C-alpha cells in the first residue's frame, strides 16, 4: 500500500484527485497508475485502469491471474469491472468510498459471483493515511 500511496502523491502533485494503484505479482510491482483524468482529458484515466494497462503491457498479457492490486481508494464501478475482467486474484483497498465505492460501500460488484470468478477483497489497509491524503486535497480545494 505504501507504493500505491506514492502513486497517489504523484496525482496530488499534478493537481489530480490523489488516488494511486499498483499491481503486484509475487513480490514485484508489475503495474503502476495514478489518477490522470485532468491531465489526459480522459474520464477513464483512473489509477486502477492505468495500473492494469501498465501491468498488461509489462507482462504482455491481458489476464492478470496471480496478481494483486493495491489501491488507496475503493474502486468505482468502472474500475471494479476492469479488475474483474482482468482476472486479478485479489484487491487490497485503503480507504472506502461511501459515494462511489463498488467493492462494498455503495454496491459490491467486485464480489458478485454472477460475474464469474471474482477477486478476494481486503479493506482498511493504511486506511488513515489513504483518507488523510484525500481529505487534505479536498480541504485545499475549498
Q: Descriptors for this entry?
A:
single chain; 142 residues; alpha/beta; Cytidine Deaminase, domain 2; five-stranded mixed sheet; 5 helices
Describe the protein.
The protein is an alpha/beta fold. It has one domain (1-126): 3-Layer(aba) Sandwich (Cytidine Deaminase, domain 2), CATH 3.40.140. The chain has five helices and five strands. The protein has helices at 2-13, 37-40, 47-59, 77-85, 127-141, and strands at residues 20-25, 28-34, 67-73, 90-95, 120-123. Strands 2-1-3-4-5 form a five-stranded mixed beta sheet. Helix 1 (2-13) packs parallel to helix 5 (127-141). It is globular. The chain starts with a helix and ends with a helix. Its EC number is 3.5.4.33. Catalyzes the deamination of adenosine to inosine at the wobble position 34 of tRNA(Arg2). InterPro entries: APOBEC/CMP_deaminase_Zn-bd, CMP_dCMP_dom, Cytidine_deaminase-like, tRNA_aden_deaminase.
Write a concise synopsis of the structure shown.
Belongs to the cytidine and deoxycytidylate deaminase family. ADAT2 subfamily. The protein is of the alpha/beta class and 142 residues long.
Task: Please identify the top-level CATH class.
Answer: Alpha Beta
Q: Tell me about the biggest sheet? A: 5 strands, mixed
CATH superfamily: Cytidine Deaminase, domain 2
- Tally of helical runs: 5
Biggest sheet strand line-up: 2-1-3-4-5
Shape, please?
Answer: globular
The amount of helix comes to: 25-40%
- Second-tier CATH architecture: 3-Layer(aba) Sandwich
- N-to-C series of helices and strands: HEEHHEHEEH
Quickly give the structural class: alpha/beta
Overall tally of domains: 1
What portion of the residues fall into strands of 2 or more residues? 15-25%
Number of strands: 5
Mean pLDDT: 96
CATH topology tier name: Cytidine Deaminase, domain 2
How widely separated are the two ends? 27 Å
C-alpha Rg (nearest Å): 14 Å
- Poorly predicted tracts of residues: none
GO molecular function: tRNA-specific adenosine-34 deaminase activity; zinc ion binding
EC number: 3.5.4.33
Cofactor: Zn(2+)
Active site: 48
